[in-house]
Amino acid sequence: ELLDEIEQQWQMAESGTLSLPHAEALSILVTWSIDPAIHLRAEKMPAETLRLAPLHSDFDLILALGISCDNHLLLELTTGERLSPYIGSWLLEQFIDSLVQDIRPESTTSSWVRMTHPIDRQVNEREHIAQRIAEAFGQALNVPEFSVHNNFFDFGGHSLIATRVIGKLKSEHQIKVHINDLFSQPTAWGLANHAVALSHSLVQPIKNEGAPPIRTNVPLSFAQASLWKAYAAFGYNELFNIPFALRFLDRVDEEIFRQAFEDVMYRHSALRTLFMMEGETVKQSVVPEKELSGYRWFWRSDEAGQVDCQAVLNQEAAHVFDLSAELPVRLRFVRDQTSGMQYLSFLFHHVVLDEWSVNLLMDDLREAYQARAKGYAPQWQSQPLAFSEYAVQQHDSGRNESHLAYWLAQFEGVPLHVPLLPELQNQPNSEPSDAGGWVEFKLSTEVVQGLYQLAREQGASLFNVVYAAISLALKQLGAPSKLIVGTPMSGRIDGNFFDTVGYFTTLAMHVVHFDQAQSVAELITQIKNTINQSLDYADVPIDWVEDALLGERTRKQHLFEVMIQLHAKNKLHGELVGEQTMVRFEQVDPEKSESALGLQFEVMEERVGGEDRIRVLMSYRRDRYGDAQVKTLTHTTQRMLERFAQPQSGNQWIHELLNLEELRS
To answer: How far is CA 532 from CA 411, 524, 536, in A?
Structure first.
């Protein structure tokens, strides 16, 4: 019956709209089309049909009908040599309009029926969404000509960028995608099939009327207040410094660098903020631009004289900020006396900067340096909202109790006071201390490639894979079956502040249920789903969760004893472009002498010289782990990562891995 109806509609369209001579002589075929991709689909191996125009057609018009995998009617029109190639799309549009208007109920509105482009409706919508996704990918990755068929991860994409892209798609284009789908479908074309077009009423669009005036005396954000509580518990010491250090491979003009960074401080008011105690509360006060010159935050290398370069970097990293009187930023250049290379101590207090902000800052610094090298101030395309505005809006909205309830539900039935490594952690006579140490090991190129391959096979991120491997290494050494792991989360769930420099990061506690995963693939999937599902609740500070679980009290230690985090291809490796010059730089790891956590794994995902590199930095408290224990931890973790990198490792049974002698020796 449907075919008869379509044939009638076709005849109506033919007689009513065609203005061709001898239209009655046209040869027309209406046929059924079977999409071969439906029958070629295999698990984790989707197939798509690539439609190509035929070199020759025996008919002037061929209308093929088919049913898609999601039970939609598909129409395909082919025109022969005798017809203009431009008439086919127009004719199909006219046919679909008349067909739908006659078949659908009268209540159907023309806005639903009318196509925005003369091609199949669903293909049109998919192409539109795919193009928007590709544009968002390209902007985030700085690849202007990003194709709908380019792989997001092949161009340097990672979890932080994915989070930002997803937020911008929702805020700016009313397109909702889930981060799990992005990892399994890393092209814009593939991801478009999983996207949902939202109503404008369901999203809060980014404000385009310009940034409001900066508020200068406001409370701390919820995340800042959580960090400040820990900062106070540790005696306001240097433990919450972020001591970056850069080595310049080419000569950098230090005065131009100062001017460029001052431009960045004007642009991002969080970097020129003081913190004052008002009774029992802390307020943050933005220093006006005109008063910035009254604060010292920059030192040139020629001011230091003959000094030991590493000693200066270490001294700066240990600087104790007085945040009520000095800016939370210190830049000090120093020159190595042997090589003549310039180094920069790039020090920030954590209360004004998170990892997401570092990349924003470095992008703006590059732009400002290039402008200043040519003799003019940078011309920013837009002005991001101030962090103080975020803090005010958050306080006005208040606590989100439903988000807190989500986190509390994750700990139902989970023992809260089980030691991390009761057999390995054997320091009974050690005095409690914040003194710490750290070790580093680099993964071989083969292991790096194997881990990336495993991530692709499992539709997961590199972080999901290394998180699973490190967790399993701890299980091998005696960790509980329900392991609580801490990890930083971006905390940015409001797209209006995606370009704002500030401290949004929250610490999250996730539970790894080893008793609910039998294979490596199942463990990776569990961790991926646990982390990704919690992203929408990342605005909840960890102290709210801990207070609800344990009772409100002042404490220096978190509920978790191990933290795993990924530093994903940050922009502290790269170059500045001056006038006809290029200044290359790379990050230098600082010395670590204190640790607020019992055990912390920092996975450094870097791309240097076109090559992907992974380093693992493990820091620890010396009052809990001695040299022998650290050696065992390092060996077991490294061997587990190597096992994960082997071919077909996703099929490996967890119980077999835990019984491997090579992981114990």
So the answer is: 17, 12, 8
Render pLDDT for 577-618 as a digit per residue (tens, 0 to 9): 866 789 999 888 766 555 556 899 999 887 766 678 899 999
Residue with structure tokens 């913190």?
A: 275
- Going by C-alpha positions, the residue among 631, 633, 602 that lies closest to residue 466 is 602
Name every residue whose Cβ is closer than 8 Å to that of residue 109 and which is 6 or more positions away in sequence.
none
Helices and strands: H and E segment counts in the chain: 20, 20
Question: How open is the CA angle 422-428-434, to the nearest 5 degrees?
Answer: 90
Long-range contacts of 323-327, Cβ-Cβ distance < 8 Å, separation of 24 or more: 323/274, 323/275, 323/349, 323/351, 324/274, 324/275, 324/276, 324/277, 325/274, 326/274, 326/295, 326/296, 326/297, 327/271, 327/272, 327/273, 327/274, 327/287, 327/295, 327/297
User: Burial of 411 by CB count in 10 Å (0-12 exposed, 13-18 middle, 19+ buried)?
Assistant: middle
Three-state secondary structure along 414-434?
CCCCCCCCCCCCCCCCCCCCC
* Separation of alpha carbons 325 and 352, rounded Å: 15
Return phi, psi of residue 383, to 5°: -110, 115
Alpha-carbon gap, residue 399 to 408, rounded angstroms: 15
| Cα–Cα distances in angstroms (integers) from residue 16 to residues 12, 22, 223, in the given order | 6, 14, 66
Q: Which residues of 337-370 are buried (b: 16+ CB within 10 A; e: fewer)?
A: eeeeebbbbbbbbbbbbbbbbbbbbbebbbbbbb
Task: Output DSSP code: residue 214.
Answer: P
Tokens of 108: 């159907």
The two structure tokens encoding residue 640: 């587990």
pTM of the complete model = 0.72
Within 8 A by CB and 6+ apart from 66, the residues are: 32, 33, 34, 35, 73, 74, 76
Whose CA is closest to 141, among 603, 454, 571? 571
Q: How far apart are CA 444 and CA 522, in angstroms?
A: 25
* Chain segment 135-159, per-residue pLDDT in tens: 989 888 878 888 888 888 877 777 7
The conformational region for residue 607 under phi > 0 = left, psi -120 to 50 = alpha, else beta, is beta
Query: CA-to-CA distance for 223 and 221, rounded, in angstroms?
Result: 5
